[in-house]
């Protein structure tokens, strides 16, 4: 079992973003926007099934390794990533107050870049297989319509990493709104970095930065 501190970490993080995640707090554009239509063959009606779909895609990417190359691995993970993450909501949370200052076209562009960046990151990093495996350890209802899934990623040498997820239900489907890797919130990291970039350099610079990172993954990964 994961330590109770993992649960508390998720609850504390949730409390910090609840006003934005609530139905009243999400902007109309974010709530109605979609990076791509959700693939019903990937999405399922339980939080565990959503995480299992992501884990299965990552293992398949790892098993493909250099035989598939970066582009082959990207083709495996990209449609799953699009389906299991709630990118409109993640985008609005990531940019905070800046989100509502963007035009609908800019919001749509940012949602798409975020999804592409996540798929590129997974394709680049989950690039070889040596007996690793994922496992869901437990789940917990954090509030109505919000679930925490606590999972592990075990390497061949026995080292265990923790991946914990906050999921929310939308349109009958459970989708990820935040990931904690070994206790570190991906949403918090992105929000700190991206809002600073927007504040200092502007929205166009942020998008250009993310696209450059995506191109770097494609060029530097085999």
From TrEMBL:
It comes from the Bacteria. Residues 1-23 form the signal peptide. The keyword Lyase does not apply. Gene3D superfamilies: Tgt2/MlaC. InterPro entries: Hopanoid_biosyn-assoc_HpnM, MlaC/ttg2D, Tgt2/MlaC_sf. Pfam families: MlaC. Keywords: Signal. The keyword Signal applies. This is Hopanoid biosynthesis protein HpnM.
């Amino acid at each position: 079992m994961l330590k109770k501190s993992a649960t508390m970490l998720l609850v504390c993080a949730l409390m910090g973003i609840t006003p934005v995640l609530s139905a009243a707090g999400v902007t109309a554009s974010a709530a109605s926007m979609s990076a791509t239509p959700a693939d019903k063959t990937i999405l399922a009606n339980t939080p565990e099934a959503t995480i299992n779909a992501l884990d299965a895609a990552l293992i398949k990417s790892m098993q493909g390794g250099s035989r598939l190359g970066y582009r082959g691995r990207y083709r495996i993970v990209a449609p799953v990533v699009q389906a299991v993450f709630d990118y409109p909501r993640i985008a609005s949370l990531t940019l905070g107050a800046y989100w509502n200052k963007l035009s609908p076209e800019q919001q749509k562009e940012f949602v798409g870049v975020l999804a592409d960046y996540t798929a590129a990151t997974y394709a680049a990093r989950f690039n070889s297989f040596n007996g690793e495996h994922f496992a869901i350890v437990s789940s917990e209802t954090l509030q109505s319509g919000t679930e925490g899934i606590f999972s592990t990623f075990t390497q061949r040498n026995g080292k265990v990493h923790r991946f914990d997820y906050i999921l929310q239900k939308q349109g009958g489907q459970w989708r990820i709104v935040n990931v904690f890797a070994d206790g570190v919130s991906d949403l918090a990291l992105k929000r700190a970095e991206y809002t600073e970039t927007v504040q200092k350099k502007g929205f166009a610079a942020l998008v250009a930065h993310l696209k450059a990172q995506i191109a770097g993954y494609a060029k530097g990964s085999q």
